[in-house]
Amino acid sequence: MKILIVHAHYEPQSFTTALKDLAVETLVAAGHEVRVSDLYAMHWNPVASVADFGERKNSDYCTYALEQRHGFENGSLAPDVLAEVEKVDWCDLLILNFPIFWFSVPAIMKGWIDRVFVSGRFYGGKRFYDQGGMTGKRAMLAFTLGGQPHMFGIEGIHGEIDLMLRPLLRGALGYAGFSVLPPFAAYHVPYLSHEGRQQILVDYQQRLLTLDTLEPLRFPSMGDFDERLYPKA
Amino acid sequence: MKILIVHAHYEPQSFTTALKDLAVETLVAAGHEVRVSDLYAMHWNPVASVADFGERKNSDYCTYALEQRHGFENGSLAPDVLAEVEKVDWCDLLILNFPIFWFSVPAIMKGWIDRVFVSGRFYGGKRFYDQGGMTGKRAMLAFTLGGQPHMFGIEGIHGEIDLMLRPLLRGALGYAGFSVLPPFAAYHVPYLSHEGRQQILVDYQQRLLTLDTLEPLRFPSMGDFDERLYPKA
Predict the structure, then answer these.
(1) How far is A114 from chain B (nearest CA, A)?
(2) CATH architecture of the region A2-224
(3) Which residue of A32, B3, B97, B114 has the lowest C-beta tally within 10 Å?
């Protein structure tokens, strides 16, 4: 399997970084090929802007998705974006590895999605969800957070974690066609003992070695909707 | 009323920008004070990093929220962050004005939240939701998107818009204590006629002049949870 890990943490000694390092080590030892995009180390630019486009389709008015599509088709997209698109094209499994910031990815990773999930390749027209450009590939979130599992139950103060993460799981990864595996959540990290953290590493390694046993999350199927995207009767 | 509009769009001629301009004009004409943070024009840096801190609490290992709290208390946070915190402190109503990117804010605005919603002022310890630092202030999202309303019904292909936006509405604004007004959504913008867009401007102006009639969204109340944040029996 070919695996791309996109990693975002501002502190190289962080536990989030330890999860990334463990994933690389475990997956390589299991015979897989692994590439890493370490966004902080790369000084990744997260800001989608007109600077992402060389020759413009419309130089008077920028519609980001239309220029993405045009730039991808003629190879004039910014080189840092094209390099990441190439890595995603290459991989069978995409892992986003990050600390939760406001129940989502940190901005540097949001900007990786904004700029790399290009119209025309990842989605376009009626090509999304199970018709998205990334069908056949899997994706998984692996993240750290301060909260504890009981805060994310149905009755929990923050509600279910998959609902809080819906725009990522369904709105970005699922929309682009990835088969989205259940997220791996490392809860309560800043407050755990050394032993508590070691247990998470054991659990994550186990998870990484048993990905094939996981049932992907369920999202809408385009076949259930008509041409205008109304539900079929 | 004192109103802060945080605006993010890469195209100055965009309809999203027209919504921002209309809001400024309408609210000033109605006697309110308005300030605008135009993130693209300001070249806002969205990346949370160690560069945000002057004198560090722990110079060997950075925990972003802890350094935020420390830096806010002693005034050593990055000046661009402090300037935005001051604007939020000043305002009675915060409007986030943006185009939907992957069912969320563009990265430049996510990074405004990541860096500006500082621990110690916006939240901290058990101070969140109705105990959050921003209680007494209101907040509202105003955004443009390509999708149409029927795609966001309970049976719609993307599910309810408030669920897709949950990490923003509840996980960021609600968590920080804001009273969150229902979002203003400008649907189908890239495909609308001139008349269709004019109608949205009329609707938005009407919305801005009747904010007091809106019922805020409902989020958890800390009083319903015990010390360890388990639901009270």
Answers:
(1) 7
(2) 3-Layer(aba) Sandwich (3.40)
(3) A32
